[in-house]
Amino acid sequence: MRRTIYTLTTLLFCFAFASSFAQGGIITGVVIDQTDNKGIEFTTLTLFDQTDAILVGGTVADTSGRFILEDIAAGKYYLRVSFIGYQT
Q: What's the farthest any 2 CA atoms get from each other in the chain?
């Protein structure tokens, strides 16, 4: 019994230790209209790797223009923000 608990504790520790390295960064923000300073709802945001322009992730802003991209690995990226009727 003691050996089983020790083994389970060791496995849980290893899993927790390994999963802490798997976590990535977070990008958050608010998309705001420059003319009235209000959030632009349902804006599409796409994240691309700066080196080879591969799509890394994406999301849609909520009704107040807020967005979050999670589990982003360290690196250099560019974020494309688009919404019909607006120019970048």
A: 68
